[in-house]
Amino acid sequence: MFFLLFSRRARSLHLRAAARTVNKETDFESAAMNIADTNLSPSDAQPEDRAQHIRDSLRSAIADRRLAPGTKLSEAEVGTLFDVSRTVVRSALQMLAFEGLVRIERNRGAFVSNPTPEEARQIFASRRLIEPGIAKAAAASITAADLKEFRDQLMEEERFMNQRGPDARRAEIKASGDFHLLLARVAGNAILLKFMEELVARSSLVIALYGRSGVSSCGHGEHAHLLQALEARDGEKAGHLMLHHIDHIEADLDLRATEGLALKDALLL
Predict the structure, then answer these.
(1) Is 11 part of a structural domain of the chain?
(2) 178 and 216 Cβ atoms separated by less than 8 Å
(3) Tens digit of pLDDT for each residue in 198-215?
(4) pLDDT in tens, 188-200
(5) Is pLDDT at 222 greater than 60 in this prediction?
(6) Cα–Cα distance, 162 to 178 (Å, whole number)
(7) What is the 3-state secondary structure (H, E, C) of 34-63?
(8) Whether residue 262 has pLDDT greater than 60
(9) What is the rounded average pLDDT of the residues 225-249?
(10) What value does the CA radius of gyration of the chain take, rounded to a whole number of Å?
(11) Residue 47 within any structural domain of the chain
(12) Residue 253 and residue 212 in contact, taking contact as beta carbons nearer than 8 Å
């Protein structure tokens, strides 16, 4: 996805993951190159378009967990990667902050959001309110072409499930989120689709921080059951299955409040 590789090695953004992320440290250089490949030529777009493109690229990296919670996003280095001014980068970061994916701290800069347990609960409470209705609407409007796309999506999920390693794991999580976004698109409500894009991205942050298994619990089998209800055009059943599915995802999270240990206790000295 990237329009240029470094002609010289750009200064690495050393992205420190939050203390409870699955991987304690993110390989930022790899993530940065994945982001930069989707860059637009400065001559090809207006500043607003470039800011939007940077926003979309960073959002994808956050949702795919290539950028971990707590990662610092330097305006200067992001600008270097995309060959744009810091003003354009600042605009993109402000968009992400509005969506809750980035927090901006005065005199410190921008960081990938690090949601609290209470914020995590609110994200899934929002999904419970929205997604059963989306499932019902999708069941009423789904077409044969849509069903084929869902089946292809499930095949993609299964392919990644059978692979090993962090890259396959991230791809599986993304594929699981894409199932929910496809459902929102089939439902035909553009406003709800925008909401779901934000909620799926923020859910990925929560799973990165609090998931017990370290992977998405968005069960492949539960997606298959949802698809069966959609194919039968059974909106009530689809809505019920979706509610159970979201409960299952949240149940895999460890949202218990914990206190940090003193250094001596943490080191068992």
Answers:
(1) no
(2) no
(3) 999 898 888 877 877 544
(4) 999 999 999 999 9
(5) yes
(6) 18
(7) HHHCCCCCHHHCCHHHHHHHHHHHHHHHHH
(8) no
(9) 96
(10) 19
(11) yes
(12) yes
Residues of the chain by 3-state class (helix, strand, coil), percent to 5? 65, 5, 30
Cβ-contact 66, 26 below 8 angstroms: yes
- Rounded Cα distance between 233 and 170, Å, is 31
Pair 160, 175: CB distance under 8 Å: yes
Question: By residue range, what is the domain housing residue 71?
Answer: 28-112
**Any residues with CB less than 8 A from the CB of 243 and at least 6 apart, and which?**
128, 131, 132
Which tokens go with 18?
Answer: 């939050």
- The answer to whether 196 touches 130, Cβ cutoff 8 Å, is yes
Assess if residue 22 is contained within a domain: no
Task: Identify whether the C-beta of residue 201 lies closer than 8 Å to the C-beta of residue 101.
Answer: yes
pLDDT value for 31 = 56
Do 128 and 93 fall within a single domain?
A: no
If asked whether residues 140 and 71 sit together in one domain, one would say: no
Strand pairing partners for 211? 253
Q: What is the CATH number of the domain that holds 101?
A: 1.10.10.10
pLDDT score for 166? 62
Q: Give the domain CATH number at 160.
A: 1.20.120.530
pLDDT in tens, 3-39: 343 333 333 333 333 333 334 334 444 555 455 554 4
More confident residue, 231 or 42: 231
136 and 71 co-located in one domain = no
pTM: 0.69
Report which of 42, 27, 29 is spatially closest to residue 170, judged by C-alpha positions. 27
